[in-house]
Amino acid sequence: MSAEExxxxxxxxxxxxxxxxxxxxxxxxYVVETDRRFYLCNSVDVKAxxxxxxxxxxxxxxxxxxWDMYRPAxxxxxxxxxxxxxxxxxxxxxxxxxxxxx
Length: 102
Description:
The structure is a single chain. This protein is an alpha+beta fold. The protein has one helix at about 5-25, and strands at about 30-35, 40-50, 55-65, 75-85, 90. The longest helix is centred in the first third of the chain and has 22 residues, at about 5-25. It is globular. The model has no long low-confidence stretch (mean pLDDT about 90).
């Protein structure tokens, strides 16, 4: 596979992922961003934990969709994330979840 073919494939995958996001965003209540992933979900719980003087976050997500073009199945019933980095959780307002028209 040439570099050009690989780039075209990745561009097509990104476009498919965006279109899927546009179609599913309306059914979710929260956006969760971690250092590694972006999730849409209907339930999220974030707890700060301390162990051996280190602070980390335990994020529990239910009924989720994962922004990851390399995942064959992006819907997940339950997700647990442990991270030492920031976690951003936003509740989507009805006006926030109207994606632009295609």
